[in-house]
């Protein structure tokens, strides 16, 4: 979505993280920690922003979803994720990867502590 792509630096990091996690087969939630090195030139506020992101992987098997019969599937998924993750803090945005065969999404919280609370509660959780 256009609004989510405006987060270009975060989006680029998420694409890299998606590639890194693409082969991960264990369902669950994984907190994205900042992988930035000291020489990247990113400020500490950028690092805090990355640490405020939770990645959910293996949410569903898209091969089993009939998108023709359920065209609003990704919108429904995004709403469900936002609602569930909103229990842990202020959700800034949710991005659902429509190309991930096993369903992936990234959620940005207003603060790293909120992301950590979400991760702690949802890690390895089945839906």
Structure in a nutshell:
By secondary structure, the chain is α+β, with helices and mostly antiparallel strands.
Q: Any descriptors?
A:
5 helices, 39% helix, 4 strands, single chain, 127 residues, four-stranded antiparallel beta sheet, alpha+beta
Describe the structure.
This protein is of the alpha+beta class and 127 residues long. Helices cover 39% and strands 17% of the residues. The protein is built from five helices and four strands, in the order ααβαβαββα. The chain has helices spanning 2-5, 8-21, 44-51, 73-85, 112-122, and strands at 28-31, 53-57, 91-97, 104-109. A four-stranded antiparallel sheet has the order 1-2-4-3, sandwiched between helices. The chain is elongated. Residues 1-7, 21-27 and 31-44 have low confidence and may be disordered.
Topology (elements, then pairings):
Blueprint: H1 2-5, H2 8-21, E1 28-31, H3 44-51, E2 53-57, H4 73-85, E3 91-97, E4 104-109, H5 112-122
> Beta-strand level of the residues, as a percent range?
15-25%
Enumerate how many helices there are, as a single number: 5
Number of strands: 4
Question: Could you tell me the mean pLDDT?
Answer: 75
Major pleated sheet: 4 strands, antiparallel
Radius of gyration of CA atoms, rounded to a whole number: 14 Å
Shape: elongated
Order of helices and strands: HHEHEHEEH
As a percent range, the share of helical residues equals 25-40%
Q: Measure the end-to-end span.
A: 25 Å
